[in-house]
Amino acid sequence: MSPPFNLRREALKFAALALCARPFAALAQTPPAPIRLALIESMSGPFANTGEAVFRNLLWAVERVNARGGVKLSGVPGGARPLQLDRYDSKGQNEEALSALRAALDDGARIVLQGNSSATAAALIDAIDKNNERDPSRRAIFLNYAAVDPSLTNERCSFWHFRFDAHADMRMAALMDVVKDDATLKRVYLIGQDYSFGQAVLREARRQLGAQRPDVEIVGDELHPMGKVKDFAPYATKIIASGAQAVVTGNWGNDLTLLVKAAREAGFNGSFYTFYGNALGAPAAIGDAGIGRVVAVADWLPNVQTAQSEAFYRAFRARFPKPSDDYVHMRLQLMIEALVQAVERAGSVEAVPVARALEQADVSLYGQRGRMRAADHQFQQQLVVGVMDRQGRPGVQFDVEGSGYGFRVVKTIAPERAELPTSCKMKKP
Question: Among 35, 183, 273, 342, which lies 20 to 30 A Cα-Cα from 407?
Answer without folding.
Answer: 183
